[in-house]
Protein 1
Amino acid sequence: MLDNDLALLYGVTTKRLNEQVKRNRKRFPDDFMFQLTPQERKKVVAMCDHLKPLRFSPHLPYAFTEQGVAMLSGVLHSDRAIKVNIHIMRTFTKLRELLLTHRELSLKVKTLEKKCAFHDGDIKTIFDVLRKLLGSPAAKEKRILGFRL
């Protein structure tokens, strides 16, 4: 999430949020937060209408990972920041569960497809034999039993 979106959620200005992050820089390693490049900012602004004001900002925005968002609650001490952070963490947990469920379901479907592909030939053979057995008696070859004179 970008710094300005998080500032809106926490009810503070982007400047205030970034000040607190800079004061507590040790709490935000590179895998918790990073600054967008000018090219990345351009792409993000093009994709998201609500970020149009960033186009003219002299500052490059910061992006926070899930861990960075969680760490913000330790930096911002307002009641709203704590409530919002709890809600965000619950949302991240639900998303992770959905992704795991989707992955498990995908694996089950692939396994089922493999089983069906393997059995297709066997099922075709069974139907061919059934057709021969259920064919009309006239179509069957009659064998003459006994002696011929």
Protein 2
Amino acid sequence: MKTLIAYATRFGATCSTAEEIAKNLRQEGFGVTVADLKKEKIPSISEYDLIVLGSGMSMGDWAGEAEDFLKRFHKTLEDKELALFISSLKPVEEKDGKLKAIERIQKVGLNDKVLKYSLNPIITGAFGGVVDYNRLGFVMRKAMEVGYRAKLQKYGFKETAPGVYDLHDWDEVRRWT
């Protein structure tokens, strides 16, 4: 099955998730092309049987390039197998037991896109992302430091570099794939 994995990332989490999905699909015999939508313009998706589209989330919004991909190809996607995924703060909310927050991530990040573009994905997934305090604006960094930094440490999310926390659960990504 010829597969396109297209993604847009803010801090690299969606890229590494896309690469992990690609690795697993290749092991299953899929022909896979991976495209960073911030660096590559996709002229057509006609040659692909399966489209896997991923986006990082910030303040409930998809990365612009992933949203643009949906705007551009939503009609063509009707004739394709489609899988959608997002990178988010879901693992923190799960450990906090905040079911409403998890539902909101699923709704805003995935379900609303499905409805907005009349999509029929075979699967959707919300995975952990990366929190990079070094790349956040001043106001967002301060808000995240108050709201999340202590939780990240409390729940055992380690800094992979100063100010950078990786929230991936690779087993979850592999199961989803």
